[in-house]
């Protein structure tokens, strides 16, 4: 299995772990709007991670075949973020806006942490 696909699978597992912690926090604490914002942002961040992994895979195939290379889908990822913020602004009593923004950044934080953990593991 290519290294990028293994990386995506690892990062997806971390994201699902975080989502399960957020669901538990939503269900068992009184900070439901904060955890709902984290759930919304992280779920859409996971979707963005999937989009990015798929686009990178197609990008690599196009380069290998010598075909025309398309973008990596920044507009679609930005539209997802706008959708999350619009939902948070539509229901401010249910969804905490700052938590949504933090949740949207989760995949990038997970990517960085995964990189550092994996590079430390490789150098041992």
Summarize the structure in words.
The longest helix is centred in the middle third of the chain and has 34 residues, at 32-65. The chain has one domain (3-119). It is an all-alpha fold. It contains five helices and no strands.
Task: Provide the structure class.
Answer: mainly alpha
Supply the number of structural domains. 1
Largest sheet: none
Based on CA atoms alone, the radius of gyration comes out at: 17 Å
Bin the strand percentage.
under 5%
User: Which overall shape is indicated by the principal axes computed on the Cα atoms?
Assistant: flat
Distance between the termini: 22 Å
Unreliable stretches (pLDDT < 50, length at least 5) are none
Per DSSP, the total helix count is 5
SSE order, one letter for each helix or strand: HHHHH
Total strands: the figure is 0
The whole-number mean of residue pLDDT values reads 92
Binned, the helix content reads: over 70%
Short description:
With 124 residues, the chain is mostly helical. The protein contains five helices and no strands. It has helices spanning 3-28, 32-65, 74-90, 97-104, 106-122.
Topology of this structure?
Layout: H1 3-28, H2 32-65, H3 74-90, H4 97-104, H5 106-122
Highlighted features:
124 residues, flat, ATP_synth_I, ATP synthase subunit I, 5 helices
């Amino acid at each position: 299995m290519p290294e990028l696909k293994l990386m995506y699978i690892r990062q997806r597992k971390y994201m699902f772990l975080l989502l399960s912690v957020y669901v538990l926090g939503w269900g068992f604490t009184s900070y439901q709007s904060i955890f709902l914002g984290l759930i919304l942002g992280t779920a859409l961040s996971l979707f963005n991670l999937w989009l990015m992994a798929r686009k990178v895979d197609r990008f690599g195939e196009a380069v290998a075949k010598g075909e025309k290379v398309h973008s990596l889908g920044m507009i679609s990822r930005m539209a997802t973020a706008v959708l999350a913020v619009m939902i948070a602004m539509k229901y401010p009593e249910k969804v905490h806006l700052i938590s949504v923004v933090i949740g949207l950044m989760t995949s990038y934080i997970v990517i960085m942490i995964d990189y550092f953990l994996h590079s430390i593991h490789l150098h041992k």
